[in-house]
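User: For a benchmark we're assembling, each entry needs the component sequences followed by a predicted structure for the full assembly. Here are entry 17's components. Please fill in the structure.
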Amino acid sequence: MAKSDVKVKVLGTWSSPFVMRARIALNIKSVNYEFLQERLWEGKSELLLKSNPVHRKVPVLIHGDKSICESLIIVQYINEVWSFAPSILPSDPHERATSRFWAPYLDEKWFPSLRTIGVAQGEDARKAAIAQVEEGLLLLEEAFGKCSKGKPFFGGDQIGYLDIAFGCFLGWLRVTEKMSGMKLLSISKTPSLLKWADRFCSDIAVKDVMPETEKLAEFAKMIMAKMRGAAPPK
Amino acid sequence: MTGPLEQAGPEMGQNLEARTQLDVYTWYSPYVHRVAWVLKLKGIDYEFVEENLKDPNKRSPLLLNCNPVYRKIPVLIHHGKPIVESLFIIEYIDDTWKDNPILPTDPYERAMARFWASFIDERLLEGSKRVLSVKGDQLKMETKQVSDAMEVLEGMLEGKKFFGGEKIGFLDIAFGWIAIWLGAIEEAVGVEFFNRRKLPLLETWKDKFKEFHVVKDSLYPTEKLVRFFTKYRHSQLKLAAKK
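Assistant: Structure for entry 17:
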């Protein structure tokens, strides 16, 4: 295929769930790529600043001479360029719109609340964050029932857009559960999501890019220590 | 266009099946206008229902059912199924009615269109709303952010008639509110975002966009918008003073 002659690179970090989205999408399409790791604590590379001048954030997909930014825009781009099966987005327009709908909620409300649990100042803030996360999981448990229609993933038989958009946060969810000693996904409240989470993490497109909980927990502790100790990096 | 429907009742269920679609609408919302422009561009017959947004307790059961997470408008209902978030609604419309495509066909151009639409919504649309609610140093800061974002837009119009190229496209629709609302916000607040000399391409685009047939029919007199924004600003500043 001519497309395989054009170099594909992903600029990112091993710990970022957003970067994971791009890598999972490329894996689903069996596209070879070079993973260029940014060491964000040491400052942003020239390549990052040049290829994402607007937001200066990872991930960035570099396809030949083109740079594409924003994780879910990257996932859609990958799906459209390597347009052979399996398709990452559903073919039905309404299902497609439903998949897209959840992403801003996850990115703007749900994941920030998840992160807050570990660093919340005061018990009230912590409780509010936990409540937000649990409410979101109940909504997603319901969404899973509607989207999957009895199949293993939100996308049906295979991992799709919403699996990627949500599943990328499972590493951090597990770290939060470990560090707080509480179960966010449970048999009693989110039985479908609990099983889905295992299936997602062991999928061939995911398992090599999903960080181990231990390693991520160590990383989280290091960041928290740095935040408490050091001056904020400019 | 038909007028607002009565309270959602059993007839509504029949209407949803009989008519092709329904749009939930509030006259001042740029998010809603975008969807209306696209529906008109594609020649799609639709009906709109006005929602009372001032009182969250008065939102219709229809809206709460359709958008339980955000409870926001617009909501498009097609074949009885709801679609939410204006930019996603536009993509849905494009996926469903394939004539006169709004989004580009090339994947990279689509990625760029999605990227800039979301960037401008965040910086400019939300930013200009914030301008309405602040004063003093904060106003200066928010105004500068809005002006910076407009310079980006000016750059994007280099060598083009519209953001979509020769014809109006996704980004023109996404940015269209700028042509109509920004001037009214400037007047209500007493700031300047649009400098004719500094942003000549954007100024020309603004005039052309307002002349476009689907937009012209939906234009409200600027005075009405200015009055609305002035009232809104007054109540926001009052609230902030209480805190």
